[in-house]
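Recap for those who missed Tuesday's class. We walked through two folding examples back to back. For each one, the amino acid string is listed first and its predicted structure tokens come directly after. Nothing is annotated here on purpose, so try labeling regions yourself before you check the end of the notes.
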Amino acid sequence: MKRTFALNTEPHVAEIPGVADLEFIPEAMGDEFLDAYQEMRQTQRERTGVDVDKVRDGADVDGLRKVTGALRIFLSRLMLPASAELITRVDVVRAGTVLATFQTWEAAAEYAEEAGDGARPVWGLRLPDRILVQLLDWTVELYAGGGKRPPTSSGGSSARSSTGGKRSTGASRSKG
């Protein structure tokens, strides 16, 4: 007996219309995904004291900003290089002008403080937090929950088995 297993070879694409198409690696080995996920959760708990699951319970703004950064870093670890760079890019702006670009919030914040006069860090790819959370959920589904099965995998196009028993269109006794 022989069974063939296929791997996804095309990147997964998270389309954000009018903003960007973020490309994720086709396959993540279990330990790669789990290590990145565990690191994100541990980082956000240790460095911020904020639990992502309890964010809605009124956490402080700086803590939430750190959670957002940890989430972006986690997502970037599953992305192709250009998308990873885009989601972690932090611009330092003053009066609408980009002064410098960094790959970490901390480096950008330090530069903004030195630049003074209203300079502040902002994410280069501005996304609502709900989109970041949806991306997190999507990646968990893709890499930890099995995700989309490759089209050539066994059973990839097989129909669902019918349930046992006899089908009937007769009226229910309880309504009779």
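Example two. Treat it independently of the first, because the proteins are unrelated.
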Amino acid sequence: MTDPSISRGLIENAMGAVEQAVDYIFNDEPAVPFHPTTDLLSLSPSEEDQIRRGEQANYRSRPTTAALSFCLTSAISLLAIAHSLIDQPTALSPVEREQLWKKLAAETKVAGRAAYRAALILSDPSAETALHEEVL
């Protein structure tokens, strides 16, 4: 592997660039709603359904913004994982190593789910018209 300090610096620069893009692109935009399933477990089925319908309506009315937000969220998560892999201590106990890998696996799931959500938004045929109008 190449010099870890150079790799770390490149990843940090990439993270900074993506975070700067997020700040610039979404400066005047309302947040793109997303509620993980675990956050909705304490709600009644009708409350959960209402939240999910609100998310879907938002995604359909602003598909470009929503997909872009999820793509950048995924990119930031993946860069954070790469940074952790480069920056991990050389001497870890078996318990510490297991905890680190579980943490990285959880962060990878966040990145994957964000990318998957972007794919769902972009493949929704009902959003195609809104996608075209939003770009114009």
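Answers for example two:
The chain has one domain: 4-135.
The first helix runs from residue 4 to 25.
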